[in-house]
Structures are given as C-alpha cells and as structure tokens.
Design a protein that fits this description.
Spore Coat Polysaccharide Biosynthesis Protein SpsA, Chain A; nine-stranded mixed beta sheet; 9 helices; 9 strands; 22% strand
C-alpha cells in the first residue's frame, strides 16, 4: 500500500533532511507545506526528495490540512520536522495491510525528549496521537493551536514516534518562534474571554500542582520539576497577557490582530 508523508515547516533547516529521510523509510512520497521559510528549509527538503508547496501560516491544524490535496495517496502519515519514525514503527507499518484494514487511522505513542532525555512524566508518555489516516475520512481538526486528528474508528499501535521536543531547558521555557502564551492569550481575547487580577496566579498554580503532583512530575526528577514549572509559567503568562490586553489599550493596539501567529 502506498502512503504519503506530510510535514509543515517554518525555518526547519536543521531538522528537515532527517525528517524527510525518516518518512521515506515507509513512504513513496513526501509533501512539505512550508510557511515561506527564510533559511534553507525548502532547498534541503527538495534535495532530500520531498515535494514542497508554500503557503502563509494559518494555524496548526489548518496548515496541516493544506497538504492533503497535494497527496497522491489516500493514506498519509503526518509528522513535524522535529519528529522521527522509530524502528519499531517502521517495522509495524511495513506489515500493516492498509488496503484491507477496517480502520480509518492509527494512533502512535509520541516519545518526547528534552535533549537526549526521554521524559515520561506530565502526560508526556504515552502521548497517543492519530498520525496515520485516510485523508478521505479523517483530517486534522480546524484548530489554530495544538490541533489533532480525532480518534474515530482508529487503532492504537504499540509503537513510538520519536519527538525531539526541546534541545534544552532554555527552549522549554521559550522555544524560538513558538510563543505559546501570547498565542493562547490572543485566542482567548478574540473569543471574548476575560481574566481578573487573580487569574494568572490561579491558573499558574493549578497547572504546576496538576502536572507535578497528579501527573507524575514529582517522580521525574529535575526534568519533572522543570517541566511542571515551564507548563505553569506558560499558563501564568497566558492569563497575565489576557488581562493586559483588557487593561492596557496601548499594548492591545500594538498587537497584530489579523493573525495570532
């Protein structure tokens, strides 16, 4: 069964070659939807064997769905530039009869890393996501942030997708070009949500407590503590910025509200 790999990119020159090569282990076609990268992403993707199409960035799920019409095959596997197929996943995909499967998609376990450290706490593993699916029956939900493919008539595979999520603690708190707290605050603002002076503290404390104590961060050593702090920090900033948008017109007026990205 033929399958197309899809990747969305923006300035991913350090990741794109290995990502395309990873997909070509099981795919006969790789489609890259690029958001007008300013580095060598497009050049390297083409050199690695991918077809590249460019489109302005319109949000996570919406952007991923842009690749589907360019796919020659009905079955697709979607990964990000910092993700790789594990050997066990490659082997499993080579033995699945996609032609006659009763399922419309497959979820895989995402194995998240900070540096070379596999982090399992705070719901980072097993982080099941539908990444292999029939494009005529499933697609990404039309969300601008943290999009996903619904688990409708899907099967969970006991195989991992490797995700080099952050290179170090610096990226964990402020990954370049991924200002999640500002994006989240702008989305909340545009949806009419409000925050009072206590909201940042309550959401920040709640996020830390849930991730450190209830989701196992306490058992994850320093990585578990730092990850819980980073999640709490992001939550705090999101609601602090939402409050600022409502209280300070000068801050609000300097934002580009035509796009949250």
């Amino acid at each position: 069964m033929r399958i197309t790999g899809i990747i969305t990119t923006l300035n991913e020159e350090r990741n794109i070659t290995a990502c395309v090569q990873s997909l070509l282990r099981v795919c006969d076609e790789v489609v890259v939807t690029d958001s007008y990268s300013k580095d060598r992403t497009v050049e390297l993707a083409k050199a690695a064997g991918a077809k590249v199409y460019q489109h302005e960035y319109i949000g996570d799920g919406l952007q991923k769905n842009l690749a589907l019409p360019y796919c020659s095959n009905n079955w697709v596997i979607s990964i990000d530039a910092d993700e790789r197929l594990s050997d066990e996943l490659v082997d499993m995909l080579q033995h699945i009869d996609l032609e006659h499967t009763p399922y419309d998609g497959y979820a895989v376990r995402r194995r998240n890393y900070i540096g070379d450290r596999w982090v399992k706490c705070c719901r980072w593993y097993p982080d099941y996501l539908v990444r292999i699916f029939r494009k005529d029956r499933l697609q990404f939900a039309g969300l601008k942030q943290h999009a996903f493919v619904p688990e409708q008539n899907t099967c969970r595979l006991k195989a991992d997708l490797i995700h080099y999520r952050y290179h170090n603690y610096d990226e964990l708190f402020a990954k370049p070009e991924r200002n999640y707290s500002t994006r989240g605050a702008k989305i909340l603002y545009l949806n009419g949500k409000k925050a009072n002076a206590l909201s940042p503290f309550l959401h920040g404390f709640s996020a830390f407590f849930v991730n450190y104590f209830l989701r196992g961060g306490v058992f994850g050593g320093l990585d578990g503590y730092v990850l819980s702090k980073a999640i709490a920090h992001n939550s705090f900033l999101k609601y602090a910025k939402l409050r600022e948008y409502h209280k300070d017109a000068s801050v609000r007026d300097r934002e580009d509200w035509t796009s949250v990205w």
